[in-house]
Amino acid sequence: MSDWGLMKDHEGLVLNYYGPSTMTAKLKPGLSVTVSQETDYPVDSTINLRVKPSSDSSFTLKLRIPYWSVRTKITINGEKLSATAGTYLRIDRKWQSGDSIQLALDLSLHLWRGTEDCKGLASIYRGPLLLAYDHRYNLEHGGSKPEIRNLA
Asked: Which of 23, 98, 99, 109 has its CA 20 to 30 A from that of 139?
């Protein structure tokens, strides 16, 4: 995994990557932390995280909450937390081996309006996934740009 997936900062760890994985970071001499993820994200919204420090220790774990995840749901060991889209959720606590976090990102459809050469067009996303438009299956539009209607 690249260096950006799980990073160390002056307070603890920063998790940027969501996907099936096991990553380990050394926080200080004698303390390493393994973060494992079980998920089908981005097809499914649920990400199950396990945090396993080599020994019980207090540090901050920051979780990236994407800007498009407006209604994020998160629990740690069953306790509900609140998160704000477009920020990092800071979890300050004494971590124990096996602490579990369940993160459910909001995969609602959202639009990205085109500019310049793409003015009048929009891209439709489901969470981080760009939904594709294939003109071969939309021949009634011919060579013209499809009409964009207000979806709201």
From this structure: 109
How many whole angstroms separate alpha carbon 25 and alpha carbon 35?
8
The pLDDT tens digits of the residues spanning 38-50 come to 999 999 999 999 9
Between CA 92 and CA 82 the distance in angstroms is 14
Report which DSSP code applies to 147: P
* Residues 81-137 pLDDT 10s: 999 999 999 999 999 998 999 999 999 999 989 899 888 888 899 999 999 877 677
* Cis ω before 42 (30° cut-off from 0): yes
Structure tokens at 21: 């994985």
Separation between Cα atoms, residue 107 and residue 77, nearest integer Å: 23
